[in-house]
Amino acid sequence: MRVLKAAALAAMFVLCGGAAAPSDPPPKWAFAGMKPGPELAKDKLFSAPGSTLKVPGGKFADSAFIADWFPADHTPMPAVVGQGRKEKKLQPCALCHLATGAGGPDSAPLAGLSADYIVAQVEEFRSGRRACAGDCAKEMAGIAAALSPADLREAAAYFARQPYRSRMVVQEAAMVPKAELVWFAYMPVKGAGLEPIGARVLEMPADLNRYLMGDWRLPVTVYVPPGSIARGKTLARGGAGVMACAACHGADLKGAGSAPPLAGRSPSYLYRQLYNIQYGFRKGPAVAQMQPVVAHLNAKDRIALAAYLASVKN
């Protein structure tokens, strides 16, 4: 799944401007993740632990193929989610967001969002108001343009019905395994030892093949800098002059009204959204209330907020 997606998009991903000049450039660890993963052996059968499904590696080269490892984990997928629309060259939603809507460091977690919110965000992509510090919104802009109103409503209703289950374990660490970036996730380099984490968040899936195959039960270890969770908690609760997240996103940070849930979401994804809103890559009424909240954040603040929010049990 991500093998195909990375190969198709890596060439067009170049960091670029498009809004007010940021005082701190978009960090590579969060924005420059479209490095293709290795191709899966075409004739070898692949499976996910606990699944009865066995898939030859060559099937993952088909952009309309979704490996439904655990059908009981979600309600029946509508065609636009599980198959896409070949006549429109529209890839299935589950290719990026997974059948359960769990998403990952590369894509939004749609499970648990309201259907109205999902529809509104697709419209933001369609209008161009939702962009990114780079080309990381280009794929969704194309999908938004191709989606019919009926397909959009059906997909939104489907993902709104799915419960969000975080698969991440967040750990503070000064030293982390040396790793390479593969499609927004970090994979340890065998025998390379450790290195300082620096000003980064590293999301490390437990197995590269399972990550590339879209196994939504795959555990993910998230490494964050020491002290970032406590600092993020202070910021999220209204410290340092930042409005408390709970004021809009609910006391448990699981969403309220039109404000989306934050608890247990990918910190890489959360960081990108904070950055994009702060520097005007995301514009329009949907984020107007967030802009003054994030206006004075620095990179350390964004990392801390993302680390804390990812650590909150969803």
Shape: globular
Report the oligomer. single chain
| Helix fraction bin | 25-40%
Could you tell me the strand content as a percent range? 5-15%
Stated plainly, the CATH topology is called Cytochrome Bc1 Complex, Chain D, domain 2
Q: Architecture in CATH? A: Orthogonal Bundle
- The structural domain count equals 1
Strand order of the largest sheet: 3-9-8
Query: What structural class should be given to the helix and strand makeup?
Result: alpha+beta
In DSSP terms (H or I, runs of 4 or more residues), the helix count works out at 13
GO molecular function: electron transfer activity; heme binding; metal ion binding
Protein name: Cytochrome c553
Pfam family, one: Cytochrom_C
Domain Cytochrome c: 79-163, 227-313
Write a structural description.
The structure is a single chain. By secondary structure, this protein is α+β, with helices and mostly antiparallel strands. The protein contains 13 helices and 9 strands. It has one domain: Cytochrome c-like domain (Cytochrome Bc1 Complex, Chain D, domain 2, Orthogonal Bundle). A hairpin with an 8-residue loop joins strand 1 and strand 2 (about 55). It has a 3-stranded mixed sheet. The longest helix is centred in the middle third of the chain and has 13 residues, at about 115-125. The protein is about 30% helix and about 10% strand. Mean pLDDT is about 90; it is low at about 5-20. Helix 9 (about 230-235) crosses helix 13. This is Cytochrome c553. Keywords: Electron transport, Heme, Iron, Metal-binding, Signal, Transport. GO terms for molecular function: electron transfer activity; heme binding; metal ion binding.
